[in-house]
Write a structure and sequence with these properties.
alpha/beta, Rossmann fold, four-stranded parallel beta sheet
Length: 130
């Protein structure tokens, strides 16, 4: 029979506690923005939004939502390519990235599962276009 190494109960507890403490205190690198520090809202407290119809009134609404700290616009939709591009540029400029998704079909935007709420800007016909 092979001779095993004997270890005292105290030594076992000391080594186990030391290993557990080392695993718990191992530093994790997490940006402060994830915790809601550095003047930012934590992702768990932020509403993700899509905007449909970003021309006249919808574009104004979009601008208001972009000024809100606890709201993040992640997608825009409009059938007018000029309005769509202007809105995407506004969103990307606000967040300093190129992450804003663009859609010409509102159903594609609504099919996303990462959007919490939607702003709908209705196109209004002016009396001059009758």
């Amino acid at each position: 029979m092979a001779k095993g190494r004997l270890i005292s109960r105290r030594r076992f507890i000391a080594r186990t506690a030391g290993a557990a403490l080392g695993a718990i205190s191992f530093p994790y690198i997490v940006p402060s923005s994830v915790l809601g520090q550095a003047g930012r809202v934590a992702p768990s407290n932020r509403i993700t939004m899509g905007c449909i119809g970003v021309g006249w009134q919808g574009g104004s609404n979009l601008g208001s939502f972009l000024r809100e700290r606890d709201c993040q616009v992640i997608a825009v939709c409009d059938i007018d390519k000029n309005h769509l591009q202007d809105a995407a540029n506004s969103v990307n400029g606000r967040y300093k990235n190129k992450d804003c998704a663009t859609y010409a079909d509102f159903r594609e935007l609504l099919a996303r599962d990462d959007i919490d709420t939607v702003s709908l800007g209705k196109a209004m016909r002016s009396p001059w276009h009758l």
